[in-house]
């Protein structure tokens, strides 16, 4: 059910603040970490910011490769998301240890996590100061895909029929809320 | 039910990606805008990043005053959140026009929106390049408060008994998801 998402709609994938999994690869090694701190910063060109702590192995791989991918896990991947956010990839290959199925991203060939509900490949925009001072990595989205059962036409459709595909929103210590309900707001007169 | 939140817990208030209302004031004028794009960037000192477009009146007030506040609306304020995100404050005083009740922030005296479920006052950290290139404003949180019916001891408690206080997560065009359900993840072996 994986479908391309127009790059003009990429910001919608993380507009509502889901926890994401950052995947990266360089020189035969790869890694996967959880990141609760990400946001879009621009619609066109589609740009995002993600906080990747400078102590992480992911940060090393991103610095070396100049790219990373954002995978958006659904509720079915809550345990995996918590786990890869709690273990460092420096000593252990998390893809292997947790038998994470993955496929190659269409533009950069980055490892994307099978079973997630959306994916973006991103090229790092080098900003040494903000990377250093705030661990904030700006990047341009160069490919976007989503599971059409839950995101189509630039919109998320969270219903009672697809709760396993609802995104995860980290409240702390492995406790994730998910967007089980929604409301259509109206403009005040 | 407003209670102080330890600054060490401030990041938790937006860790799960809610839409926020940014309030600002300078020289007798004030404003309120919605921002879907914000995130924590550091626990200690507590720092956040918020995207505030350079075309907005809020951005002018923030540049002049060097500060802004983050108000986190609950579901009961969905219409107000959508509305203040759709109207510019340059020509109209949104606090007045929409009769938004507010109170003064404890450290900076910024107007905070009554009826929200959490509040943070923030001092802008001047970063001309990222403000210009990415409309991204870094800031340090200098006060934090929350409605104890939904956030206490550094944790959100979203239950069926307080759904009006659940945070809003913008899916687009005034459609907001809210965290009606949650799951406690387990570490994989």
Question: What's this model, at a glance?
Answer:
Two copies of one chain form a homodimer. By secondary structure, chain A is of the alpha+beta class.
The major β-sheet of chain A equals:
8 strands, antiparallel
Distance between the termini of chain A: 41 Å
Overall mean pLDDT score of chain A?
97
Taken as a percent bin, the fraction of beta residues of chain A is 35-45%
Instruction: Name the shape of chain A in a single word.
Output: globular
By DSSP, the count of extended strands of chain A is: 15
The greatest interface here is:
A-B, 58 and 58 residues
* Secondary-structure element string of chain A: EHEEEEHEHHEEEHEEEEEE
Cα-based radius of gyration of chain A, to the nearest Å: 16 Å
Low-confidence stretches of chain A: none
Oligomeric grouping of the chains: homodimer
Q: Helical residue percent of chain A?
A: 10-25%
| Tally of alpha and pi helices of chain A | 5
Structural class assignment of chain A: alpha+beta
Written account of the structure:
2 copies of one chain form a homodimer. Chain A has 189 residues and is an alpha+beta fold. Helices cover 17% and strands 39% of the residues of chain A. Chain A is built from 5 helices and 15 strands. Chain A has helices spanning 10-14, 57-65, 78-84, 94-97, 128-134, and strands spanning 2-4, 20-26, 29-35, 38-42, 47-51, 67-72, 102-104, 111-113, 118-124, 136-147, 151-152, 155-156, 169-172, 175-178, 181-184. In chain A, strands 1, 2, 3, 4, 5, 6, 9 and 10 form an 8-stranded antiparallel β-sheet that branches. In chain A, β11 and β12 (155-156) form a beta hairpin. At the A-B interface, β4, β5, α3, α5 and β12 of A face β4, β5, α3, α5 and β12 of B. β14 of chain A pairs antiparallel with β15 (181-184) of chain B, so a sheet runs across the interface.
């Amino acid at each position: 059910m994986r479908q391309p998402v127009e790059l003009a709609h990429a910001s919608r994938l993380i507009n509502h603040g889901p926890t994401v999994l950052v995947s990266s690869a360089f020189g035969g090694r790869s890694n996967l970490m959880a990141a609760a701190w990400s946001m879009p910063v621009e619609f066109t060109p589609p740009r995002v910011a993600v906080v990747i702590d400078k102590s992480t192995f992911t940060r090393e791989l991103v610095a070396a490769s100049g790219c990373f991918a954002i995978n958006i896990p659904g509720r079915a991947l809550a345990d995996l998301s918590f786990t890869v956010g709690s273990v460092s990839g420096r000593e252990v290959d998390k893809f292997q240890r947790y038998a994470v199925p993955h496929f190659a991203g269409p533009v950069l060939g980055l490892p994307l996590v099978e079973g997630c509900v959306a994916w973006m490949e991103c090229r790092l925009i080098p900003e040494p100061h903000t990377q250093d001072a705030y661990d904030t990595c700006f990047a341009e989205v160069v490919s976007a895909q989503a599971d059409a059962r839950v995101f189509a036409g630039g919109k998320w459709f969270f219903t009672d029929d697809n709760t396993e595909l609802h995104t995860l929103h980290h409240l702390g210590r492995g406790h994730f809320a998910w967007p089980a309900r929604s409301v259509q707001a109206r403009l005040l007169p």
